[in-house]
């Protein structure tokens, strides 16, 4: 049988409801401890009686969101950007993110939202030619710090 592991807050809620049912402790005390109404405590008692510990796990736990970007699609986009849309001398793109989104749709039949494309490009250090100064400085600082950390790890070994 699979062992059910709850997170801290859910485990406190589970233990409180369990003691409420097993030891016939007061519902009011449980409502004060969990900062819930009596009605919610009775609802949780019913959940405990019907499903046990499983009832305290959220239904979407361990599921991927439906709008996540497919890994194969993201690697395909990165390869296309590296070959066609990146300036050879730097990490700057020859198109801004909006135009890149249009080109991917028209020429390569890849439909991706602007927000997903933006995060994908920033995660892989592809900068838009129209990037704002603040964002550029943040990325440069982040990359600088990462380089220093890896160099410090190599030196310490």
Q: Your description of this structure?
A:
The chain has 157 residues and is mostly helical. It has two domains: 8-56; 71-156, no CATH class. The protein has seven helices and no strands. It has helices at 8-22, 27-34, 38-51, 71-85, 97-108, 114-123, 133-156. Helix 1 packs across helix 3. The chain is elongated, with a radius of gyration of 26 Å. The two termini are 43 Å apart.
List keywords for this structure.
62% helix; 2 domains; mainly alpha; 157 residues; elongated
Overall mean confidence score, pLDDT: 84
Tally of helical runs = 7
Quote the distance from N terminus to C terminus.
Answer: 43 Å
Number of domains: 2
Number of DSSP strand runs = 0
- Beta-strand content: under 5%
Largest sheet: none
Structural class: mainly alpha
Which H/E pattern describes the elements?
HHHHHHH
Rg computed from alpha carbons, rounded to a whole number of angstroms: 26 Å
Described by the principal axes of the CA atoms, the overall outline is elongated
Helix content: 55-70%
Show unreliable segments. none
Quick overview:
The protein has 157 residues and is mainly alpha-helical. The chain is built from seven helices and no strands.
Helices and strands in order, then pairings?
Elements: H1 8-22, H2 27-34, H3 38-51, H4 71-85, H5 97-108, H6 114-123, H7 133-156
């Amino acid at each position: 049988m699979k062992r059910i592991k709850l997170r801290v807050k859910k485990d406190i809620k589970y233990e409180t409801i369990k003691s409420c049912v097993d030891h016939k402790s007061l519902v009011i005390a449980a409502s004060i401890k969990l900062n819930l109404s009596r009605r919610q405590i009775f609802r949780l008692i019913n959940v405990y009686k019907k499903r046990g510990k499983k009832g305290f796990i959220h239904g979407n736990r361990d599921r991927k969101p439906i709008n996540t970007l497919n890994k194969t699609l993201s690697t395909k986009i990165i390869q296309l950007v590296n070959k066609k849309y990146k300036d050879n001398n730097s990490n700057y793109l020859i198109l801004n993110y909006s135009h890149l989104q249009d080109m991917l749709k028209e020429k390569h039949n890849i439909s991706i939202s602007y927000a997903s494309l933006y995060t994908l490009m920033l995660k892989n250090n592809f900068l838009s030619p129209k990037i704002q100064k603040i964002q550029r400085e943040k990325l440069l600082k982040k990359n600088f710090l990462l380089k220093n950390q890896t160099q410090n790890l190599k030196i310490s070994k």
